[in-house]
Design brief:
Structural class of chain A: mainly alpha
Number of helices of chain B: 10
Number of domains of chain B: 1
Number of helices of chain A: 18
Distance between the termini of chain A: 43 Å
Strand content of chain B: under 5%
Radius of gyration of chain A: 22 Å
Largest interface: A-B, 6 and 7 residues
Number of domains of chain A: 2
Helix content of chain B: 55-70%
Helix content of chain A: 55-70%
Strand order of the largest sheet of chain A: 1-2
Radius of gyration of chain B: 23 Å
Oligomer: heterodimer
Shape of chain B: flat
Order of helices and strands of chain B: HHHHHHHEHEHH
Shape of chain A: globular
Number of strands of chain B: 2
Order of helices and strands of chain A: HHHHHHHHEHEHHHHHHHHH
Distance between the termini of chain B: 55 Å
Strand content of chain A: under 5%
Largest sheet of chain A: 2 strands, antiparallel
Largest sheet of chain B: 2 strands, antiparallel
Chain lengths: 353, 238
């Protein structure tokens, strides 16, 4: 009997890029379902448009760059970018908004920087931010969730949704302020009054009708990815923790100046989508576990700061891009200790022979 | 240095050593005022004027200024020309002067101007110095107008809007609406990120063109005539 000596590691992970990406796509399903239940088929149309455009742009750029088209298309990375952007965009936004966003995500943010693995910024968030600063009107019109609709109104059916997306009909009747907007513009009302008065809060439990369940669904998807060990817990937990701590500090038990409870911040906007699907991007975040803790905490702080004192509908995209800038800097100071050495080296330390 | 190759000076300024695309000097105005063609043209012309004038003046005094104090002297000259330009713009194109604002006095700090004064004008006689200033200025102006055009077309859907600020009332009708009245405008092109994107893409385009030229030159140099024959130098060819 021959024993073949093999050095460690003995356990091999079967995680390929395509495998990871497929798991991520699978994990977005609960969130997608919640969005569809509460806001109608708008998000589905977003995803459909985004995926089609992403595959087309990806194939075209790969062709131009003389790379093997099918090989890179099969790693699903373009689809993940498209799905994340599609989930973040307001339902029923015009088709050209989606296409422009995907163009910037895939062509500018990903391929102009060298393709998958070389992009310093999260492509989906670049696409989102470009849209947000270019088309503020379209980007700030969120659909009204099911529970906050006026009597006699119902969520748009598929045909109606199509006519909105392709610009035949107007969306005005179906959009309303999101919980984050409502809280920001709650001039002079205590949180209690606001929760009782505003339709979007009155029909919800913690953070506004629909939104809380969308966030819980993304949390479930994220928990699945954690269980599958697609990413470590450090970045998302750090982000949620720092966001929660800041929210507690500024909560002041619900006066008219209150910035909202921790639960409100955790369960509104794109918090959970950001925490488990954006902040965990292996390419654009910090590399080491300690680095990820700092990176995630930074995102959480920025989310709270921009939400509370900024003027945009949500803050996750800006926070993530700002921390993308900082990721190499964080990596520089958080090089892990190598096994067998007492001190961690500096990333740029001179080698001593 | 007896013979000056004006063709080379022109080529250096307009293409090979273009201040905007190759030297990457004067990026601050390049990025800040190129939101529309009229702004870009206004600042480009002003910069060209200062560059040509300061090159001439620096060249004239090049033998009487010692090396140790040359930079302050150059800056004084450039500042004088900038002030002249500023007053001229205030007199003739007041509205544009107000739009461009701080970027006109900031021409003093434009590295292209000090760079050309030190690198070229202080070592050459007046005529080549003027030619160099003019060509560098035109090269910079062209890049400014190119970036301004792209950003204005994408960002606002118009081209040559508000040209009356520079050329008088008759130029008001020059404006071209490229995409009709329903174009929403793509704001990111007019905002600062658009300036970086467009400038980067233009630099990439220039590099592509250069690589192409190189390739064709190399190809033409390596061409061997297919029917090369040894030439007989002795005897008779049958």
């Amino acid at each position: 009997m021959a024993f073949i000596r093999v050095t460690s590691p003995h356990a091999h992970s079967a995680n390929s890029t395509a495998g990871v990406m497929r798991q991520v796509l699978l994990a977005t399903l609960p969130g997608l379902a919640a969005l569809t239940v509460y806001f109608g088929p708008g998000t589905l149309l977003n995803l459909l448009l985004a995926c089609t455009a992403a595959v087309a742009f990806e194939a075209a750029v790969l062709k131009l760059r003389q790379r093997p088209v099918m090989f890179y298309l099969r790693d699903y990375s373009a689809l993940v970018t498209a799905v994340l952007l599609g989930l973040a965009l307001p339902p029923y936004c015009p088709w050209w908004v989606v296409v422009v966003g995907i163009f910037f995500a895939i062509v500018v943010a990903k391929h102009l920087y060298g393709g998958l693995g070389y992009n310093p910024f999260n492509p989906a968030m670049v696409g989102y931010v470009v849209l947000l600063i270019s088309f503020p009107l379209e980007m700030s019109q969120w659909a009204t969730p099911k529970g906050a609709l006026v009597d006699g109104q119902s969520l748009p059916a598929l045909g109606e949704a199509l006519s909105k997306v392709f610009g035949v009909a107007d969306l005005d009747g179906y959009s309303s302020a999101t919980p984050l907007d409502t809280l920001r513009q709650s001039s002079g009302q205590t949180l209690e009054d606001l929760y009782r008065g505003a339709a979007i809060f009155a029909s919800g439990r913690w953070a506004g009708n629909g939104w809380e369940w969308v966030n819980i669904a993304f949390l479930l998807g994220g928990a699945y990815l954690l269980y599958k060990r697609i990413f470590t817990w450090h970045a998302p937990v750090a982000m949620l923790a720092s966001l929660g701590v800041l929210a507690i500090v500024f909560y002041d038990s619900g006066s008219s100046n209150s910035a909202g409870s921790p639960l409100f911040h955790w369960l509104s906007g794109a918090t959970m989508l950001g925490a488990f699907f954006i902040v965990t991007d292996p390419v654009t975040s910090a590399v080491s576990n300690k680095g990820r803790l700092i990176y995630g905490a930074g995102v959480g702080v920025l989310v709270f700061v921009i939400r509370t004192w900024g003027n945009y509908p949500d803050a996750v995209a800006f926070a993530v891009l700002l921390m993308n800038f900082a990721a190499p800097f964080i990596d520089y100071y958080t090089v892990p200790r190598t096994y067998g050495h007492n001190k961690a080296p500096r990333a740029t330390a001179k080698k001593v022979e | 240095m007896s013979q000056t190759d004006y063709r080379d000076i022109a080529l250096q300024g307009l293409w090979k050593n273009n201040p905007g695309l190759v030297q990457l000097l004067g990026l601050c105005p390049l990025l800040a005022v190129t939101g529309s063609v009229v702004n870009a043209l206004g600042l480009g012309l002003a910069t060209m004027l200062v560059l040509t004038g300061s090159n001439l003046a620096v060249s004239l005094i090049r033998h009487s200024v010692s090396d140790a104090v040359r930079l302050p002297a150059f800056v004084m000259i450039i500042a004088a020309f900038t002030t002249c330009t500023e007053l001229l713009m205030q007199a003739f194109t007041y509205e544009l002067y107000q739009i461009l604002g701080i970027f006109i006095p900031l021409i003093v700090t434009n590295c292209v101007i000090l760079g050309r004064a030190d690198a070229f004008a202080s070592k050459h006689p007046p005529l080549p110095a003027i030619a160099d200033g003019l060509m560098m200025g035109v090269g910079f102006l062209l890049v400014l107008v190119a970036i301004g055009s792209i950003r204005e077309i994408i960002g606002a859907g118009t081209w040559l809007a508000n040209m009356h600020l520079l050329f008088g009332e008759a130029a008001r009708s020059w404006q071209i609406n490229l995409f009709g009245d329903n174009y929403r405008g793509f704001l990111v092109a007019i905002l600062p990120p658009g300036a970086f994107l467009v400038a980067g893409l233009l630099i990439a385009l220039k590099n592509i063109v250069d690589a192409h030229i190189q390739q064709r030159l190399a190809a033409s140099r390596n061409q061997v005539p297919k029917t090369s024959r040894r030439v007989r130098t002795t005897g008779q060819i049958a």
